[in-house]
Specification:
By secondary structure, the chain is an alpha+beta fold. Helices cover about 20% and strands about 35% of the residues. The chain contains eight helices and 21 strands.
């Protein structure tokens, strides 16, 4: 029956003149050891099937599917569809695609389920993709470089300011521009100030278990030997910050040896306009990160790269995802590396005795516009804590 339904749909599509309803996507989110969510946007909302199966070496990607999950037309205002795939095997790469009633198919993508403890974990970090009005698509430059990286990422963290304004055209720009990497790994963002706490942010993303508005303002991902906590630095209520502090303590009380935190606003920064960082976060969150043994804190907001070491915690400003770059000023205490010339992303590999990190420039930006290339603007290893 699974093979017959798309053929019938294709015949109907030809007779009725249908085109593919896929507007953008698919992408994945909320990954676990035995589950993941597949998402896309269709216009008009249409019935579809998600075909998926374990990735098999040597098989063409378009011949992989073993199972299918059929879903009715989605009725959300944005045409966003989310399908939860469950009963998966831990530590396994899967391939998937979306098949519509008219027989049209999405591009093939991949995702990985959470590994067992003891296995290396690889992920990437970027921030501040936003929007642009003229010139080459800088966000796509970063995405294509991520897609060419030398190792596969288990997931991608985004430090906020995904879009300039949370309106349909800007979301379509975000997902279409990042498609070269979103097809291959789940995306796990946090709120930036440009998302404006919009309901469209919450509707687009499936996130790990969390708290706050709709259970998505802050969240925790447990992934083998790694735990990642996403926080909301845009919050204005003291209660929100107290709740996040409690969430952080509970999330970092587990056995995972590698501990990471991601949110939007830098705690410390040498950015000419934003430096020296946020005094409020320095008072509220920095002591917690020190006490709880956080290895790295990833932020954005300042559109440059900077590594700052304070009290055993490494802070990385990762605001080079495609928005206009901002100049660095006088370096704050603890600043050991920085660059304001490149669009970039940050690959991370945890395991094997420590955490290896790079800042990878993918385009040098000058008066003539971005010049593609590859530059290692920083590289370091944090040894495991004794």
């Amino acid at each position: 029956m699974r093979a017959v339904a798309p053929l019938l749909g294709l015949l109907l599509g030809v007779l009725l003149g249908w085109g593919s309803p896929l507007r953008y996507g698919p992408w994945t989110g909320a990954p676990e050891a035995r589950a993941v969510t597949v998402s896309w946007v269709a216009s008009p909302a249409s019935p579809a099937a998600v075909e998926y199966g374990p990735l098999r070496r040597g098989w063409p990607l378009d011949l992989f599917p073993l199972w299918a999950r059929y879903v009715p037309a989605q009725t959300a205002d944005w045409g966003i569809a989310h399908v939860r795939l469950e009963g998966l095997e831990p530590g396994t790469w899967y391939t998937y695609r979306v098949v519509f009633l008219d027989g049209s198919r999405s591009p093939v993508g991949t995702f990985r389920t959470a590994p067992y403890p003891g296995e290396p974990v690889t992920f990437a970090v970027l921030s501040d993709t936003q929007w642009q009005w003229t010139g080459p698509n800088r966000v796509r430059m970063v995405a294509e470089a991520l897609g060419r990286a030398s190792f596969a990422f288990h997931f991608v963290l985004h430090g906020g300011d995904l879009v300039e304004t949370p309106i349909p055209s800007h979301w379509e720009f975000f997902f279409s521009s990042l498609a070269p990497v979103l097809r291959w790994a789940p995306i796990l963002p946090v709120l930036g100030n440009h998302e404006r706490d919009s309901i469209s942010y919450y509707e687009h993303f499936a996130l790990p278990p969390g708290g706050g508005r709709l259970g998505k303002r802050w969240w925790t991902l447990r992934w083998g030997d790694v735990v990642v906590v996403g926080l909301d630095s845009n919050a204005r209520s003291p209660r929100d910050y107290l709740d996040q502090a409690e969430w952080l303590r509970a999330s970092l009380s587990g056995p995972e040896p590698h501990r990471f935190v991601v949110f939007h606003h830098p705690v410390f920064s040498s950015d000419r306009s934003y430096g020296p960082g946020s005094e409020g976060l320095q008072a509220l969150w920095h002591p917690l990160f020190v006490e709880l043994g956080v290895d790295l804190v990833f932020t954005g907001h300042a559109h440059n790269y900077e590594r700052i070491e304070r009290d055993g915690v490494t802070y990385l400003v990762c605001g080079g995802g495609g928005a206009n770059l901002y100049p660095l000023g006088s370096r704050v205490p603890g600043s050991v590396a920085g660059s304001d010339e490149y669009l970039f992303y940050v690959p991370v590999r945890a395991g094997g005795g420590g955490v290896a990190v790079e800042g990878v420039g993918v385009a040098r930006v000058g008066e003539g516009g971005p010049v593609p290339g590859r530059w290692v603007i920083d590289a370091f290893v944090r040894p495991d804590r004794p």
